[in-house]
Amino acid sequence: MKNIKLKSYKKKRDFYITPEPKGQKSPKASSKLRFVIQKHAASHLHYDFRLEMDGVLKSWAIPKGPSLNHEDKRLAIQTEDHPLEYQYFEGIIPAGQYGGGTVLIWDKGTYEHIGDESSLLKDYHKGHLVIELKGKKLKGGFVLQRIKNGDKPQWLFIKIKDKYENKKCDILKKDKSVVTGKTLREIGLKDSHD
Q: What contacts 194, CB < 8 A, 6 or more positions away?
């Protein structure tokens, strides 16, 4: 059975060229919902925020990256759903391919929907998600609030004022992969010599 949710994802990629996951594996059931943030040096540097939901990774591109300051409202542009396997992808998308550039797993962990678990999808469709991240870099409450519908819905990604808020910390300076400990440059150099 083909996953119709990944139609847009698959249409944009040539899997004979890109090492990205095809999304053909059956999603593994997880007792906890997972999230990943991938630092992506494509045509413009940005951070891809992905939440496991409804058998896929719901995805947003955050141009300025996340912040630990509740006063910072970060634009998050919704992108196509990605397969669950994408949360493990770190490497190079070849030039000329959709999203061509280096991808680093900047943060990962689990998350909880604040509120009734059965209302996660309902809140997503309403355009207002309150979640608690339990990552290696990001922890605590965050809000995703849709501000514009259309082909590329726009959301705001905002830190909730809690014990994990830190107005003085520029979390983006922690720029190494939480999986390999490498920088974007090191990942690019390794892959170019393989």
A: none
Q: Could you report the per-residue pLDDT of 163-179, keeping only the tens digit for each?
A: 999 999 999 999 999 99
Q: Is 117 exposed, middle or buried (0-12, 13-18, 19+ CB in 10 A)?
A: exposed
Q: What is the pLDDT of residues 89-103, one digit of tens each?
A: 999 988 888 888 999
Burial of 72 by CB count in 10 Å (0-12 exposed, 13-18 middle, 19+ buried)? middle
The separation between CA 152 and the C-alpha centre of its own chain, rounded to angstroms, equals 16
Separation between Cα atoms, residue 61 and residue 65, nearest integer Å: 8
61 and 131 in contact (C-beta within 8 Å)? no
Is the distance from CB of 160 to CB of 144 less than 8 angstroms?
no
Q: Which two tokens stand for residue 56?
A: 């896929």
Give me 78's structure tokens. 């919704």
List the domain boundaries for the chain: 31-193
3-state secondary structure of 18: coil
For residues 11 and 17, give the distance between their C-alpha atoms in angstroms, rounded to a whole number.
Answer: 14
